[in-house]
Specification:
It is a single chain. By secondary structure, the chain is an alpha/beta fold. Helices cover about 30% and strands about 25% of the residues. The strands form two sheets. The chain has a seven-stranded parallel β-sheet with strand order 8-7-6-11-9-12-10. It has a five-stranded mixed β-sheet with strand order 1-3-4-5-2. Helix 2 runs parallel beside helix 3 and helix 2 runs parallel beside helix 7. The longest helix has 18 residues. Its EC number is 2.1.1.193.
């Protein structure tokens, strides 16, 4: 289900003025004409039926069922997906953009990038952070995902562990405790639990960092598959978790 993600400064006004980029998205990409309806969502998670006007604005009316004003009949998941926050080790180049796009489309609740001992890239330039935020916004609008969109900040692995909520799953071989396969970990999770999924960068994470995660209560998990790249592993795990816990 495609949506219009309202800007962060929207405060419940009935008339929403479209930016040039938003107007182009509605009229050129979705091919909507004035008078057409579009589902809109603000940054607080409230949904609206929006009616496109000739003047380049959208008239908003609050709704409780987002699909009631859907612009298409494309496949859409109507029930709530598992609450999974992706903590991703910062990768090189544009891999971070690909990860952000795919994770948003998969429906994660949020994305946090972290640096670790083996990260080859230690920070995001402002230009790169802006691009990732824009890519996340486009992915949410295209997919209807409820992912929280914001300018990405890069924090340390230790800080990421402090911010993680619910059950922490770390895609890594355990160094203190016996590791488990991801499907074994899923069998021990409640359907309604919150998950913090940690995925390392190209070099993975160090044994010291793994021990720190285990001290925090993380379950170290391996996947029953081939060795996957950093930009693939998280998306593979997200799909497995959502398929297991979302049905």
């Amino acid at each position: 289900m495609r949506i219009l993600l309202l800007s962060a400064d929207h405060a419940g006004q009935e008339e929403y003025v479209l930016s040039q980029k938003e107007r182009r998205y509605l009229m050129k990409v979705l091919r909507l004409a004035p008078g057409a309806a579009i589902t809109a969502r603000d940054r607080q998670g409230n949904y609206y039926e929006g009616i496109l006007t000739e003047e380049g604005t959208v008239r908003l009316s609050p709704i409780h069922r987002p699909e009631s004003s859907a612009t298409d009949q494309l496949s859409g998941y109507r029930a709530k997906l598992p609450t999974i926050h992706l903590f991703q080790g910062l990768c090189k180049g544009r891999k971070n953009e690909d990860i952000a796009r795919m994770a948003c489309e998969a429906g994660v609740s949020g994305i946090t990038f972290f640096t670790s001992a083996f990260c080859q890239q230690k920070e995001l330039r402002e230009h790169d952070a802006q691009r990732i935020e824009s890519i996340m916004r486009e992915a949410v609008q295209q997919s209807g995902s409820e992912t929280a969109v914001c300018r990405p900040q890069v924090i340390s692995f230790a800080k990421a562990l402090e911010e993680a909520e619910g059950q922490i799953l770390l895609l890594h071989q355990g160094v203190r405790t016996k590791g488990m396969l991801l499907d074994e970990a899923m069998a021990g999770l409640r359907k309604d639990c919150e998950i913090s999924l940690f995925v390392g960068s190209e070099g993975g994470i160090s044994e010291e960092e793994c021990a720190l995660a285990e001290d925090r209560g993380a379950w170290c998990c391996l996947m029953r598959t081939n060795i996957l790249r950093a930009e693939t592993a998280g998306i593979f795990a997200l799909g497995a978790l959502e398929n297991c816990l979302g049905w």
